[in-house]
Structures are given as C-alpha cells and as structure tokens.
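question for whoever is on the cluster today: can someone run the full assembly for these? two chains, 623 residues total. i dont have access anymore since they changed the login thing
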Amino acid sequence: MISFKNTNNTPKIVSSSPTLEAEAKDWIKCPSCRSLLYIKHLKENLQVCPKCSYHFRLSALEWIELLLDENSFHPIMEDMCALDILEFSDQDSYADRISKAAKKASFTEAIQVGTAQIESQAIAFGVMDFQFIGGSMGVVVGEKIVRLAEKALQESLPLLIVSASGGARMQEGMFSLIQMARTAGAIGRYQKEHGLYLSLLTHPTTGGVSASFAFLGDIILSEPQALIGFAGARVIEQTTRQKLPPRFQTAEFLMEHGQIDKIVERKFMKRVIGRILSFYAEGHDLARGV
Amino acid sequence: MKNLLSFEKPIAELQQRINDLEKESLEKNIDLASSIELLKEELKSELQTIFSNLNRWEKVMVARHPERPHLIDYVKALIPDYLYFCGDRLFREDPAIFGAMGHIDENNIIMLIGHHKGKNTKENIACNFGMANPEGYRKALRLMRLAEKFRVPIVCLIDTSGAYPGIEAEEHGQSEAIAVNLREMFSLRVPILAMVTGEGGSGGALGIGVGDRILMLEHSIYSVISPEGCASILWRDASKASLAAEKLKLTAQDLWAHHLIDGIIPEPVGGAHRDHREMISQVKDHIQAWLSGLRTSSWDEDLLQKRYEKFSYLASYQQVKNNLESSLPEQVK
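^ ran it for u. tokens below:
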C-alpha cells in the first residue's frame, strides 16, 4: 500500500480562530485552487469545486447515491469483516484499526457490493471507500469482489466496480497479496463468458488494486485528475533519481499513454455508464433478433 | 564468501582458522588433518545452529544474498539443452525476466521462466536487478502461452524485490501487465509450479506466481510489501524494517504455517549461497517429483478448476465470521 501523506484529499475544515468555529464548519478550502467554498454549495455541485472543478473524494455511500437508481442497491455480504490473522500491530493494533474504521464508516469493510440498477438496467455493483484503512484490499475486499464477479456471472449481469484504494492491506501480509490473484481470476472467468466489466477508477487507485481487478475492465473510466498508478511517486523518484513528468500518474497522463478509455466528469458519470449499459443490452437484443 | 552477513561472523573466524591450519600443514609439511577435521565439524554445527535460528530480518538478508544461485545458474543446471526466447512483441526485450525451454530429464521438457537479478554489477544493471518492466511480464505471459501450445509444464522461479518502480513502467502500464498475467495464468491449460528461490517481492513476484503448486526455498521470503516500505509507511521510519519483517510474517516457515504454500525446499547447511550444486540438486528433485505426479492427473478443465479453487481456499481460510460461516466450503471450517 502506498502512503498518501503528500496528496491528502480530505476536505480540511478551515478554522482560524475559536470564535469563528461555528461558521468555519460551513466552509472548506479547495486543496487544488485554494478557494474558500461554502460546503452546502459544494455538496450541491456533487463535491466538485465550482471554481476549478477539483473532484473531492466521495464516500461509498455518496457514490451509491450518485450512480444508482434510488433505492435500487441491494447489498450482499454486509456482515463480512476482517480477522487479524497475523496479529499485526504497528503503532496501533490491526484489530483496533478495523474496529475504529468500522465505527467511523458505519460499515464493516473498504468495499460494498451488491446488485443495483442504473437507469433501470440491472447490474452487479461494487464500490470502495478510501476512508476505510485507505481503501486497502485485504481478504474481505478480495472475497467480496470474487463473490460479486461470480454472482454477475451466474445472473448474467454487467459488472461495475468503483475503485478507490492505496493497494493491498499490509496488515494482512501475504493473505492480502493473494487477493490480487483471486480477484483477477474471478474477473477472468466472468469475462471468458463474455460478461461486461466496467471499471471506474477514482482518486486514488494504486498498488495492488490497480495491478489486479481495477485494470482488467473491458472499459476503464476515470474521474478527472485522479491519481492512478502502480508504484508510489516518492518511491519512483527515489529509485530512478529522475524528475517526474508533469501530471505524472494522473488520469490525464494515463489517457495520453493509452491506459484508460475515458475521463468523465462527475456530473456526466451516471449518464455515460447508463449509455454503455444500454448499448450493451441493445447489442445483445439485436443479435438475438429481439 | 565475499559478502558476509553480520550473523555469519563466528563462522568466518572458524573458517579463517581452518584456512590457516591448512596453509600451515602445507608449508611446514605436518599432518594437521585431524585438527582440521575437528574444526570443520565445529563449523558445520555452528552453521547449523545459526541458520536454524535466524530471525525474520536475518532471513530477509539471506534471501537477498547476492551469492545465492541466480536464475541463469538454475537454467544451465536444470535444462542443459535450453533454448531461450525473447521479447514481448510490443515494445522491448526485458532482460529482468528470462524464459527458456529444455529437457529436465529424458522424459520431461519444461518451460522455465523467472526473474533474473544478474550475477555481477554489469549484469545487475543490464537486467535492472531483476525488477521487471511491463514488457517483462508481457514476455512471461507470451512464453507461458507458448508452453501451453507445446503442452509442456511451466516452472516459474521467483526472485525479485518487486516490479520496477519507474516512469516508463507506469507509462507502459505496469498495473495492467501484472493484472493481465494474474488473470491469464488462471486460464493456462498446462500445469504450473511456482517457486520462490530468493525474494518474493509483492505484485512483481505474484505476476509470475499463480501456480497449481507453490513452493519456497527454506530461507526465501514472500511478502505483500518490502519490510523497508512497510516500515516507512506504518512507522514513518525505514530503519524499523526488521520490526516490520517480524510483523509481516514473510518467511517460508510463516507461510507454511498459514497454509499459504505447499512446501518448503530445504537449503544446504548455511544457506543456498554456500553450496549451489546442492541447492540446485534439491530444486531439481522437487521439480521432478512434481512432474512425475502430473502424469496421472488431467490437464484440462479440471486443472483450471482446481487452480481457481486452490486460491479460493487459501484466502477463505478462517476469514469470515458471523452468519457467513454457513456459506463457507466444507474444508475451510
């Protein structure tokens, strides 16, 4: 997993003096253009900065709200939670990290999966949440993706996964590395049967997640300016002693290098995915002579 | 030994005494054979003691030892009539991954694919210390497909600190290359043996590591992240690497205890770097044993199904609690 010390995307509450605290809660500073934004307006604008169109990170629940038809999401495997197999501890024990993250997020892991509808078209759907231990992939994330892909295969549903992850979860050691193979294997089985897999990469998608299921999409979409890559920029700089090119590892950089299909602004995302799904359904109908 | 590890110091002194005695015996023409023999015995038992009590960080150092047998040593000794193949057909030949086909014995041909770190500075640089670019992973997959066409089993020897963290590697799709290998290795209709011979570094190792059987050499390591990387993220201090190594449980013995691998190949007393011939012969025995077991099993759908299930089993292992217990496969409970 990669450290995001220098690319903090969490909205910072601006608070210059204690007396202003109440009002400060309503304002936040855009990390990109430094404009002071009224939170209510930012929310109305889908968490996109109205000044510079910086895309603030969305939680899993916000993605569900943004992309899926109202009340169409039926989560599965909601109770699955990680075990501290290695009895791992750094400054915090892993067991504590899990329970703290779960309390904060009000769900048990870094991914939610289930069935849903987008513009009335049924899909299998997964969405990661970066707030949950950096969206890292341990056994549960792997297991949920595998079972989601298997469900999509059994029920002949298109599959959409929204990624946001620093990579594999170090605290589960080799158990988490193996999830890269497992998820890739399950996606492979689904694709061999001509299942359509859409992968949406959001800020950030890196490491073991980008190098497994996230980059196997039949179509790969991304949000503008999202950080996407395999290795961390700091590691690359230290290893190669080269200056990194401008916009390195951004969605735009990957687009230039032919790694992704489309960069889509948040306000158009549902529409674009909806259209892909309708082309797919129509193509199949036409072929069957329906 | 050019590269002496810190915990090998006591051995060095003994070795020096043996050398001195041998020299003295020659120069002064006196028979010191019995004392030399005694010292050699002592040396062996000392080695035995040290190497059977290595902590995890010491294991990391042994796994990375520059004098361990390298890929090319295994290739030359295991498949003497080897033919090697090059290129990803897209952009570049990546010497960090080497692949060759040849007879391991008169009844068996194998495709041997592995990371090549290089034996000296010149080679190290040429093959980028075994850190492959996307081209290397794409070449590896191309050669695996070739093996499938030839109907020969694949043996992957893993020894890398990781996939190369470079600008071009990112531009050429390092993530995609590894992801595709992981996916496609599940669909290869020939048996695959993956073996960690030194360092199993993260996704760069796993990128050629999806197998029907997974083995590790006694002092090799396999980890989701390097101890240094883990330390600098979790402790914000790369010097805590030895502590991180303890926590990551990355030795062959740890992985065996957690049912993550199928077996451990013993190393010569004092580690693979002390006796290449013995090490390679052990590796050969294990490959041949695996090959002879293959004859009876089917190579088609069954093989792929078992490979898929093998990885499911590995990961479901004691993972899920609450009401999901009931949906777990029988062998997991």
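summary bc i know u wont read the tokens: Chain B touches chain A through 60 residues (CB under 8 Å). Residues 317-333 of chain B have pLDDT under 50 and may be disordered.
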